[in-house]
């Protein structure tokens, strides 16, 4: 669509919602009776409804007809609407080509099914032929011809099925109407601020200068070991990282989340389920000669835990707090954030993860709760932050809605992302086939959500810079002191 079309999309969306919004939950505007997405595609205006009375279903409205949104069936019926949803998410999926492959699959399947039906008819006629050898031989020969033709066609069908599946992996989820329409992080909308950026009565240092002065890091020797974007934490920094992990793990576990320490490597299906593959493969370290890769978040491993399982409704929601070492290639970031430990290849992370019923309201409640959990942690660390509602072009293909929590970095004079909170509806669950049986006996796909609890050493930037003192020390927030043996300050190391 043209730039004018994009403006019409935004204007229609906002003017329509202005009549319907109410703040049901503390941050995000939600619709009281139903959610509506307005899609202005070539040829008309489309409305996507999600009824709270039937929250497990999308209803698509066009020219007075309601239709249930089914993955491939919906794409076939409403390609323009799918293209527009992909456009606002900056997805490069070629919907026309997907549908072309889909038509080839359907045509070939019909041909093969028709031949198998004729094979079955011939088999019956062979039995009915009795002692008529000539007829029997002719019918058997015809059946063999069909078998050979099917044998020739099946590899092509399998190729087309695989190609269609790979294309379907690229089809993005429909974003929630409360998500801002935008292209990148500059279009994200701040919805909350907490705390005030500090005003220092001395010349403050950035995190790397602080860490060097306090002998907390050795990047030069780390590069010798593992190359660029590596680091060695030393002394109180090593203790501080473990304290942060323990602190976050404890706080979230006390809320009833099941603690997990999960593998830091996972098979390919976990990354497909999570949504990192196929698009984000360039960010992932592969283990040579194995179908395993290093994860960038515990979310990947937890998503794979329940693959192909049908859960019991009474066991939902399932809430987890997971820890594992994480790895990321940081492809495409050459020259960005090269100073210090903000953007590194290896880090430790505590992640929140929820599996719940296929209910939009429940997903929204958990999305807000996961955000509140992270806010509680950051507030306990006494760090000023803001929450932004992430725009469609920045949130990623699988997400229905996303918040970033961004902490204030004094040396940069801006907020930087330290936590990402997302909900997916059934997008991930479909990819790994995680379902549950409801009270009526119906089998449905679950909804999934996740959010950062703590990621280190990224959190070091605001933590060290905010709490630095005029005498060169760093004050340890009270909430962390029990995990640091009661220590109140990080001080220069004295070599005796």
Notes on the structure:
The chain is of the alpha+beta class. It folds into three domains: 3-88, no CATH class; 95-169; 185-490, 2-Layer Sandwich (BirA Bifunctional Protein, domain 2). It has 13 helices and 21 strands. It has helices at residues 3-18, 71-77, 79-88, 95-128, 133-169, 207-213, 219-226, 235-253, 268-274, 298-305, 360-380, 427-432, 460-466, and strands at residues 21-22, 30-31, 34-41, 44-51, 58-62, 65-68, 189-194, 258-261, 265-267, 292-294, 310-312, 318-327, 346-356, 385-389, 401-409, 414-423, 435-437, 443-445, 447-456, 474-475, 489-490. The strands form six sheets. Strands 7-14-15-16-19-13-12-8 form an eight-stranded mixed sheet. A hairpin with a 7-residue loop joins strand 1 (21-22) and strand 2 (30-31). The longest helix is centred in the N-terminal third of the chain and has 37 residues, at 133-169. It is elongated, with a radius of gyration of 27 Å. The termini are far apart. Mean pLDDT is 85; it is low at 1-70.
Structure summarized in a few sentences:
By secondary structure, the chain is of the alpha+beta class.
Number of domains: 3
The biggest beta sheet is recorded as:
8 strands, mixed
CATH architectural designation of the largest domain = 2-Layer Sandwich
Rg calc: 27 Å
Number of strands: 21
Oligomer: single chain
Point out poorly predicted stretches.
Answer: 1-70
Approximate shape = elongated
What is the class of the largest domain in the CATH system? Alpha Beta
């Amino acid at each position: 669509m043209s730039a004018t079309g994009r403006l019409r999309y935004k204007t229609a969306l906002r003017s329509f919602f202005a009549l319907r919004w109410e703040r049901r939950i503390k941050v995000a505007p939600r619709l009281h009776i139903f959610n509506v997405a307005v899609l202005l595609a070539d040829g008309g205006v489309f409305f996507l409804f999600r009824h709270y009375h039937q929250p497990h279903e999308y209803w698509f409205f066009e020219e007075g007809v309601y239709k249930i949104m089914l993955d491939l069936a919906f794409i076939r019926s409403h390609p323009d609407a799918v293209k527009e949803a992909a456009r606002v998410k900056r997805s490069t999926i070629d919907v026309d080509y997907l549908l072309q492959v889909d038509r080839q699959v359907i045509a070939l399947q019909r041909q093969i099914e028709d031949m198998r039906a004729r094979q079955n008819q011939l088999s019956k006629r062979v039995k009915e032929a009795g002692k008529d050898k000539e007829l029997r031989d002719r019918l058997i020969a015809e059946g063999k011809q069909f078998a050979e033709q099917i044998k020739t066609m099946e590899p092509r069908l399998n190729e087309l099925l695989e190609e269609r599946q790979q294309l379907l992996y690229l089809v993005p989820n429909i974003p929630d109407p409360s998500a801002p329409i935008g292209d990148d992080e500059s279009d994200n909308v701040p919805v909350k601020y907490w705390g005030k950026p500090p005003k220092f009565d001395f010349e403050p240092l950035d995190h790397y200068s602080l860490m060097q002065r306090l002998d907390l890091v050795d990047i030069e020797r780390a590069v010798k070991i593992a190359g660029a974007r590596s680091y060695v934490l030393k002394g109180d920094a090593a203790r501080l990282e473990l304290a942060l992990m323990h602190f976050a793990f404890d706080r979230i576990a006390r809320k009833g989340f099941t603690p997990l320490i999960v593998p830091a490597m996972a098979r390919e299906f976990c990354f497909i389920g999570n949504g990192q593959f196929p698009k984000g493969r360039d960010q992932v370290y592969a283990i040579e000669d194995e179908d395993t890769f290093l994860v960038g978040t515990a979310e990947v491993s937890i998503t794979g835990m329940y693959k192909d399982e049908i859960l019991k409704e009474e066991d939902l929601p399932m809430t987890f707090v997971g820890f594992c070492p994480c790895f990321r290639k940081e492809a495409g970031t050459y020259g960005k954030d090269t100073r210090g430990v903000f953007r590194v290849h290896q880090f430790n992370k505590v992640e929140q993860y929820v599996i719940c019923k296929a209910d939009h309201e429940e997903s929204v409640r958990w999305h807000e709760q996961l955000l509140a959990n992270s806010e509680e942690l950051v507030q306990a660390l006494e760090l000023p932050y803001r929450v932004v509602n992430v725009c469609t072009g920045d949130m990623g293909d699988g997400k229905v809605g996303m918040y970033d929590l961004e902490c204030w970095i004094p040396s940069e004079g801006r907020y930087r992302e330290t936590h990402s909170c997302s909900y997916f509806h059934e997008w991930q669950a479909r990819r790994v086939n995680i379902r549950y049986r409801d009270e009526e006996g119906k089998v449905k796909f679950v909804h999934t959500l996740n959010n950062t609890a703590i990621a280190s050493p990224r959190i070091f930037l605001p933590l060290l810079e905010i709490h630095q003192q005029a005498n060169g020390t760093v004050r340890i927030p009270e909430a962390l002191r029990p995990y640091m043996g009661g220590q109140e300050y990080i001080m220069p190391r004295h070599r005796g």
